[in-house]
Design a protein that fits this description.
It is elongated and about 75 Å long. The chain is 19% helix and 52% strand. Strands 1, 2, 3, 4, 5 and 6 form a six-stranded mixed beta sheet that branches. It is an alpha+beta fold and 129 residues long.
Length: 129
Amino acid sequence: MTSSVCKHTFILFILSSFSPLLSAASSTKLIIKPSVCMVKSPGDSCQMTVSVQWHTDETIAACLFQNDIRLHYRENVQNIKTKMAISLEQDMMFTLKNDQQIFATQQIKINTALPTKYRRRLRADWSFF
C-alpha cells in the first residue's frame, strides 16, 4: 500500500516539475489575420497584407518565420502588432520561435474560387421519358 502511495507521489512530483515548461510554451498567442487567401484558380500565387499580433506573458526575443524564411525579428518584447505583405503559392505555416524554442504556430490556407475537379453528373443529359 505504501509503495503505491510513493509511486503516485513521485509521478505527481515529476508532472509538476514539467508544468512550468508547458505553461510557458502555451502562454504565447500568435494571431495572423486573414487566415485564408482566395485565388482565382489553383496554382495562382496570393499576395496580401496581413495583420500579425503576438502576446506573451514574459518578454522574449523571437522571430516570425514563413516556413524557413525569417520575416520579422523582435528582441525583449511582450506584445507586437504589425502589418506585413506576404506572398503565398501554397498553404504556409507561420512560426514564432527563437533558437531554443517554438512559441506558437499558425497556418494560412489558400482557397480557390474554382473547384479543382468538376463533379460528374449523376444522370445523363438525355432521357427517353
